[in-house]
Design a protein that fits this description.
- By secondary structure, the chain is α+β, with helices and mostly antiparallel strands.
- The protein has 3 domains: 61 residues, no CATH class; 123 residues, Muramoyl-pentapeptide Carboxypeptidase, domain 2, CATH 3.30.1380.10; 39 residues, no CATH class.
- Helix content is 51%, strand content 8%.
- The protein contains 9 helices and 6 strands; from the N terminus they run H-H-E-E-H-E-H-H-E-H-E-H-E-H-H.
- The strands form 2 sheets. A 4-stranded antiparallel sheet has the order 3-4-6-5. The protein has a two-stranded antiparallel sheet with strand order 1-2.
- Helix 4 crosses helix 5.
- The longest helix is centred in the first third of the chain and has 52 residues.
- It is elongated and about 95 Å long.
- The chain binds zinc ion (ZN).
- The site of zinc ion has 4 residues, from strand 4.
């Protein structure tokens, strides 16, 4: 009698321990689920905030894109990687500090010494035929340039529509041209003969060491929406320039890659 009572008591307390364990396990699972849900919600908020920061067009489908790593987010905010093109206008109030690179030309002060040093080293290597034909351009003057180009095409016998299309393919609209950023340079006569010059060959071999990339490569016209321009080089800094070259990307592709797309 005494023994069976003891057994019953033992069974009872074993049952209680079992139920207690189940309850603890359920609480644990619910907490984990809660942590994941909260995390997810804050991630999508970050994604929206990042798009507003980057001054990009906010589209709802972009919210589902991958979240860039902390390191890549920092890179995407780097002034050297600022993407200005047909669909990304630079901020209207963006005014880079400028320095002279020669008597007439200006460049972003943070990159001007790299441009000067690159041209000096080129000359040291025996390439004397090299000059910056165009560097920084005031966005307000960009429109004058567009009108001049249209006029030139009209004089060549093109229709107004043709002249506008041809101009658009080589001159960015105000605030959509890298020349307005002060980080782009056009060398020599700004024509396709530059491709055959020793300066171009030198640039394709060494420009990345000074932080410059060929901005509009031949095989990327469908992405950049700009015709191949052997004379147009963009400063992005040596670390990025080397990586971009190594990966065989254009700037648009590299930015997408950093965003994790
Ligand atoms: Zn240019």
């Amino acid at each position: 009698m005494k023994d069976s009572k003891k057994k019953r008591l033992e069974l009872n307390s074993n049952g209680k321990i079992f139920i207690y364990r189940i309850v603890v396990a359920i609480i644990f699972i619910i907490s984990i689920l809660l942590v994941y849900t909260i995390n997810d919600m804050s991630n999508s908020k970050e994604s929206v905030a990042m798009q507003i920061d980057n001054d990009n067009v906010i589209t709802t489908e972009k919210i589902d894109e991958k979240i860039p790593s902390e390191e890549n987010l920092k890179k995407l905010q780097d002034w050297r990687l600022m993407l200005v093109n047909y669909e990304n206008e630079m901020p209207r109030d963006y005014k880079p500090k400028l320095s002279v690179v020669d008597e007439d030309r200006l460049f972003d002060s943070r990159a001007s010494s790299s441009l000067i040093r690159m041209m000096e080293d080129m000359r040291k290597d025996g390439i004397t035929r090299i000059w910056a034909q165009s560097a920084y351009r005031d966005p307000k003057k960009q429109d004058e340039l567009i009108q001049e180009s249209i006029q030139e095409y009209l004089e060549q016998g093109k229709t107004k529509e043709e002249a506008e299309i041809l101009t658009k393919r080589s001159i960015g609209e105000p605030y959509k041209s890298e020349h307005n950023l002060g980080l782009a340079v056009d060398f020599n006569n700004i024509d396709y003969a530059f491709e055959k010059e020793s300066a171009f060959k030198w640039l394709t071999e060494h420009a990345q060491d000074y932080g410059f990339i060929l901005r509009y490569p031949k095989d990327k016209e469908d992405i950049t929406k700009i015709k191949y321009e052997p004379w147009h080089w963009r400063y992005v800094g040596p670390e990025y320039a080397k990586e971009i070259k190594e990966k065989g990307m254009c700037l648009e592709e590299y930015i997408d890659y950093l965003k994790g797309n």
